[in-house]
């Protein structure tokens, strides 16, 4: 995760980590770089697409490996594949939290989207809003 955290910071301006305070409590920190005119020139659209494509493709590939191990009855590999799915999924979740914001924002965004989709279906409106 460290290497992707470095590439995430350099390519798209996102990073996340765990911080433990003096009381021993764990705090997750999710950061997104503020877009300025100079930084927007250094972060290209192609680099951003490559980063997100790789970040999404890896968990999908691990899920394919999981089904392959499950259906071929290779139980000894299933534990490795499940750990790959969990770790890549956690990395994807961390970057999505950085990009979207706090969990409350993510929940409200999903609820708003689902509400719009439901309203569009019930009214028969095919035009996106």
TrEMBL record:
Pfam family, one: DUF846
Sections of the chain in a coiled coil: none
Principal cellular location given in the protein's record: membrane
Transmembrane segments: 50-71, 77-96
Lipid bilayer topology: Multi-pass membrane protein
Keywords for the protein's UniProt record, in alphabetical order: Membrane, Transmembrane, Transmembrane helix
Subcellular location: Membrane
Family statement: Belongs to the TVP23 family.
Annotated protein name in UniProt: Golgi apparatus membrane protein TVP23 homolog
Annotated organism of origin: Vicugna pacos
Organismal lineage: Eukaryota, Metazoa, Chordata, Craniata, Vertebrata
């Amino acid at each position: 995760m460290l290497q992707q955290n470095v590439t995430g910071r350099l390519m798209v301006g996102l990073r996340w980590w765990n911080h433990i305070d003096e009381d021993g409590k764990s705090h997750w920190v999710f950061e997104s770089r503020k877009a300025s005119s100079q930084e927007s020139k250094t972060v290209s659209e192609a680099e951003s697409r490559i980063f997100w494509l790789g970040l999404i493709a890896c968990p999908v590939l691990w899920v394919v490996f999981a089904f392959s191990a499950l259906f071929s009855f290779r139980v000894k590999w299933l534990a490795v594949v499940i750990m790959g799915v969990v770790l890549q999924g956690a990395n994807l979740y961390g970057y999505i939290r950085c990009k979207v914001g706090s969990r409350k924002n993510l929940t409200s965004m999903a609820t708003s989207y689902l509400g719009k989709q439901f309203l569009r279906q019930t009214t028969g409106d095919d035009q996106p809003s």
